[in-house]
Amino acid sequence: MTQALDLPTKRQEEWRWSDMAALEAAAQSPMGDMPDADAWFIHGLDGPRLVFVDGEYQAKRSDPGPIRVEALPADTEHPLGRRAGGTGWMLRVGEGGAETCIQIVHLGSGGANHVPARIELAADATASLVETYVGTGWANRLTRIDLGRGARLMRSVRLLQSGGFVSLRDEATIGEAASLVSIVLGAGDMGSRIDGDLRLTGEGAFAEMGGALLTRDSQSQEAAVAVHHAQPEGSSRQIWRAVAADTSTASLAARVEVARDAQRTDGEQSLRGLLLKRTATVNLKPELEIFADDVKCAHGATVGELDKRALFYLESRGVPPARAQAMLTRAFVADALARIGEEAVREAFAADANRWLESAL
């Protein structure tokens, strides 16, 4: 552990790719200018809106609807998540209810800020929400999710900070026939660490966590997600894409555990990395731990460069080299972002990825 913030170190296997020096620098960064929140809401979503500035709720700039802002405990052993106690937000939807198109914008001006969150959906309830991170500093979040029988949650997260560090810790319990889909896009210039611990505790539960991490310069982003199947006939998907340019590093670790009683589990891990320069680094680590004997679990991990024949084909038909690279890279990440259910959100994420490509290539 480092002395200043008591952070994990690279000597711990699950943190060996983490850039805790970037996190510590972000936590100690001075306060600066604050970006405008309104510019980061996605148009076309008519739902509750919340704004947090440096971790503090902004009541005058928010329309929270059913979301309550209150003190929440950081009841986790995760080394970063346990710091995220204090005032946070809670979404609770009763049986058969629906709360969709929720947007939460987190603005950072520097220093460290911590916000806990809790999402509880009763049986057959539905919810969808988008979270956006902009600005700078260290934004640290802990989100607890509990889904009752047949509940459905679609969660989309975009990391667009111009600097600093974002750390997310999601801990979810998914009940019988319930569904959780969580998609993350890292297209800013900050460092990041995305942690997920998803537990399928009911028969026929479904969990998906994935997305795309885009890195450049000396930036480092990583995701580490573990899915635990405890009951029969559960399904899970981890579809991640990493694109690394310059001397940057993108790291993905995906783990699936299948208990002895979780027969007829269907799990898929797809980790793919794209190097835009050979000085960049992509780390991939898929893991399967299976104790049941009637399961279907597949995992794949590949790292490569853009297809030179495809580039030649496009350039031979008059497409400029930079645009040809952008087209192929856009196609590379498209399947990870296509999992987002709402069209307006999916288009906003695609636009964020396009802006990153235009500036990086």
TrEMBL record:
Source taxon at top rank: Bacteria
Domain SUF system FeS cluster assembly SufBD core positions: 118-332
InterPro entries (alphabetical): Fe-S_cluster_assembly_SufBD, SUF_FeS_clus_asmbl_SufBD_core, SUF_FeS_clus_asmbl_SufBD_sf
Annotated protein name in UniProt: SufD family Fe-S cluster assembly protein
Origin species: Stakelama saccharophila
